[in-house]
Specification:
71% of the residues lie in helices and 8% in strands. The protein is of the alpha+beta class. It has a five-stranded antiparallel beta sheet with strand order 1-2-3-5-4. The protein is elongated and about 75 Å long. The termini are far apart.
């Protein structure tokens, strides 16, 4: 037989063992989540406790598990609508998503640690404490670029080109010399005004379009170990198909047509002789 005892909002049930249930005040104190927020989560269907005929909410240990997930997702910057979708997933898929998030956080932590180390070294170099080689001065910037690309596009690149090709590209980029890195920066600096000029008067062929293509081609030839015109065209297609690429070029050029126009230019010029 089940005996119930109520003590300060805590409901303890005994049936061959102990199960913990909480009224809303005790649950709020336990979790650090306000009663108002708990009621809001109930209204949104995120966390639905048992409700007695008198209207009192009772939270179980299972509700505590679910709230733990909700709070974790909130720390990961998910919206409540996104959290609701995640909680509706099968447990195995939900755990896989969390594991992927953890992997991304580990990468971000490693990138931040490397940035701090580079900052310390730069400060010492600037104050005469240590002498950095020209190669070392740019090492962290390359590592950070690889980490950011992995976080944003790693899965798509691996799917489209294979894991080995992606690893080769990362190693190639990390091995760039100061001169090669400067070549890439100069190419991007040429690309921006050329593409802006083309957008003002979109015409093919044109000097602006050719300059934009050659700048983009130089950047790719320097950044990747296996450049080809076919690869260039394939990458251009991703600029339009993937909204993250589209957003990048929109921000870089200041025009929502930038990614699509760049694809058009590449398709025109990246042809086999």
């Amino acid at each position: 037989m089940l005996d119930l005892h109520v003590t300060s909002g805590l409901i303890v049930g005994f049936e061959g063992g102990m199960a913990m249930n909480y009224q809303i005040k005790a649950f709020a104190e336990l979790t650090g989540v306000s009663e108002r927020t708990l009621r809001y989560y109930h209204e949104r269907g995120l966390l639905v406790p048992a409700v007695a005929s008198n209207g009192y909410r009772t939270y179980s240990s299972q509700d505590a598990d679910r709230l733990q997930l909700i709070l974790m997702y909130r720390q990961l910057q998910f919206s409540l609508a996104e959290i609701q979708q995640l909680l509706a997933l099968p447990p195995a898929e939900r755990l896989e998503r969390l594991a992927n998030q953890r992997e991304q956080l580990v990468k971000q932590q490693a990138a931040l640690t490397a940035t701090l180390a580079q900052l310390d070294a730069t400060l010492q170099n600037q104050t005469g404490g240590i002498q950095m080689t020209d190669q070392t001065k740019f090492e962290q910037f390359k590592q950070q670029a690889v980490a950011e690309n992995e976080q944003r596009y790693g899965q798509e690149v691996t799917t489209n080109y294979g894991k080995q090709a992606k690893q080769e590209a990362d190693q190639h980029f990390l091995g760039l010399s100061e001169a090669q890195y400067a070549t890439m920066q100069a190419a991007e600096a040429r690309l921006k005004p050329a593409l802006q000029t083309y957008l003002d008067q979109p015409q093919l062929p044109s000097e602006a379009a050719q300059t934009a293509f050659e700048a983009h081609q130089t950047w790719l030839q320097t950044a990747t170990p296996r450049y080809s015109l076919a690869m260039h065209r394939g990458l251009a297609a991703m600029y339009v198909a993937d909204e993250r690429f589209t957003a990048y070029y929109t921000k870089l050029i200041g025009d929502q047509r930038a990614a699509e126009s760049l694809q058009t230019i590449i398709e025109y010029y990246a042809i086999e002789a």
